[in-house]
Amino acid sequence: MGIHPYDVEQYDEEVLEQYIKHPKCIAVGECGLDYFRLPENEEEKIAYKKKQKEVFISQIQFAKKVNKPLIVHIRDASNDSRQILEEYQAKEVGGVLHCYNASEHLLPLANHGFYFGIGGVLTFKNAKKLVEVLPKIPKNKLIIETDAPYLTPHPHRGKRNEPYYTVFVADKMAELLDMSRVQIEELTTTNAIRLFKEFSSIS
Ligand SMILES: [Zn+2]
Q1: How far is the CA of 166 from the centre of ligand 1 (A)?
Q2: Cα-to-centroid distance, 89 and ligand 1 (Å)
Q3: Which of 13, 21, 122, 154 is deepest in the core (most CB within 10 A)?
Q4: Are 121 and 147 in contact (CB under 8 A)?
Q5: Distance between CA atoms of residues 109 and 84, nearest Å
């Protein structure tokens, strides 16, 4: 349960309080920062970024209060995101950097309880950066994700994404890390259960 950076105007902690009680709510997110589409007007731009930061910080504090990990969305905002996660002690709950964008600047967050969500982008022909960064991510911090319905892995790119396509991400990861698909499956499942502690009790 969380408010995406595009929806910050709708942020209301009471709503979060209400939904987080559901037994299937095992994390707080997506929350984070997204500077991909900013207003052109300088003042509006500053105000928009400020609002995104406030709502992100509130959700970090909320996650700590309810003791659940964070699902963090970061786009074109690596510096501010890392600074906020460190300053507000997000490591108390940890989380996942979802659709990790291969920014080397975010790698130190591995030491702050953060995992790196690898999705369909890894299989794209233009994924050079992520392919290079992948081996630098500590193995115990790797998880696989879908971002469904988006970012469908090759060779199904363009179709609606589904969780069963994650097998293509696992295969690509296995190839790049010189491991078998079974080893990747075991590794990323173990990591996911360690991060989302309530996972095993609902599945
Ligand atoms: Zn996202």
Answers
A1: 17
A2: 22
A3: 122
A4: no
A5: 11
